[in-house]
């Protein structure tokens, strides 16, 4: 019984920490993964993202991993785009046209957390 309480308390604490450190932002997706600003023509898989210029910080973000969760829609076309899933993506590229707190996810990563028909979603993300 005591072990179950400890496990439940740990899960609650983890959720609270995630919510406290998550950065609200937006996400879009892209489909051409190489070459990338960080790795050139080296394939880095499909759970990847391009960082906005501020986060990218002249390449310092290359290789960092971020947990991303869809939190809602940004347009009326798909009013409830979120799947309820989270993904962890690796920063492999720069998104020069992205705004602050925006990530450009691979199409596969975006599709794991939201309906791609939405095109743009609101997210929470944090470095892991």
UniProtKB/TrEMBL annotation:
Species: Abeliophyllum distichum
Signal peptide positions on this chain: 1-22
Keyword DNA repair: no
UniProt-listed Pfam families: DPBB_1
Subcellular location: Secreted
Gene Ontology CC annotation, any one: extracellular region
Keyword match Manganese: no
Superkingdom of the source species: Eukaryota
Protein name, per record: EG45-like domain containing protein 1
Domain Expansin-like EG45: start-end pairs: 25-128
Keyword vocabulary terms for this entry: Secreted, Signal
């Amino acid at each position: 019984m005591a072990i179950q309480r400890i496990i439940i308390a740990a899960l609650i604490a983890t959720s609270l920490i995630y919510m406290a450190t998550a950065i609200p932002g937006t996400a879009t997706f892209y489909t051409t993964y190489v070459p990338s600003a960080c790795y050139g023509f080296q394939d880095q898989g499909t759970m990847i993202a391009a960082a906005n210029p501020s986060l990218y910080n002249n390449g310092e973000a290359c290789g960092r991993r971020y947990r991303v969760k869809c939190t809602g829609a940004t347009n009326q076309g798909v009013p409830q785009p979120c799947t309820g899933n989270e993904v962890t993506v690796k920063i492999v590229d720069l998104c020069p046209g992205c705004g602050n707190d925006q990530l450009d996810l691979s199409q596969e990563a975006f599709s794991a957390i939201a309906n791609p028909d939405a095109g743009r979603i609101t997210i929470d993300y944090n470095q892991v």
